[in-house]
Amino acid sequence: MENTSTFTTFILDGYFILDKQKHLYFTIFLFVYVAIVLLNALLIAVIYTERTLHNPMFILVCHLSVNDIYGSSSLIPHLLFNLATQFYKISLTNCLIQIFCLHTFNIIELTILAVMGYDRYIAICHPLRYHSLMSPRKLQIIVIFMWFYPLITFLCYESLTIRLTFCNAIITKTHCVNFELIKLSCTDITVHSIIGLSTMVLFMLPQMLVILFSYAQILRVCLYSSKECKTKAVQTCTPHLLTLLNYFIGCFFEIIQSRYNISYLPYDFRTFMALYFMIFPPLFNPIIYGMSGRVIRNFVYEFVFCKKGGCVKTLSN
Questions:
Q1: d(CA 23, CA 32)
Q2: Would you say the pTM of this structure is higher than 0.90?
Q3: How far is residue 236 from each of residues 57, 59, 117, 292, measured CA to CA in Å?
Q4: Distance CA 234, CA 35 (A)
Q5: 94-151: per-residue pLDDT in tens?
Q6: Which of 14, 48, 223, 265 is most buried, most CB within 10 Å of its CB?
Q7: Pick from 244, 232, 238, 230: nearest CA to 292
């Protein structure tokens, strides 16, 4: 067999442009990461403390916040470290760990959003059966599934990448992505590319079908409902729809970058597209759900702005 040089350390080429304004980018990423952790931790704390929020929808919102902290922590501290040290290399092991964390974050996010869509469908279309269909026992099973299904199935898929050898060391991003790593393989990647597209369908299609079915049914019910019911349905679904929109914008950017040559676009915009997934959904999700829930707004208002015994008037329920 012919000897081939293989690489176990990779250069993250995306940092070399950021290096020109590394102090600015470091400050921005640090501020964003602190905001993500604080906002999501606050939302989790409010839901955990306020007993009136112990219902399926807000329990799912709580898991969404946990996942957002998990996803952003998989990338942003690494960005900050690299900008601070100007060390733009990553080992194969750390690259594979980062790939696992970032990809499972995306799959878990979509799975949670699908369950939340189903929850809204049950609440609006079958309100009398809601407590039986979304009982605590069933919710526990759903929660276990939406975490362990992505973690186990993606690990099986990533085992194919682990077996590869690599003949190039340049990753044209600020972080590791599975398809970007596969493209550096010494062997033909046609099979891996086909398997990658197939698993993408497996990881995303069932959730998307659940979301489409849920909102098709909600729309059908709203068409024959009173104006008051339509207004209530819109208020109930708007936060989830905004979160979905935020997620799928990130999906669109990631697919465009991974599968097509976009070198003609400005580098700053490509960097924005690459980091959208890890920054904007985790940052805006707690804001969307925090602003949409009156109980949460009241709790935060009293917790942050009111001293003990010092509040004369609080927001009305």
A1: 14
A2: no
A3: 10, 15, 11, 9
A4: 28
A5: 999 999 999 999 999 999 999 999 999 998 888 889 989 899 999 999 999 999 989 9
A6: 14
A7: 238
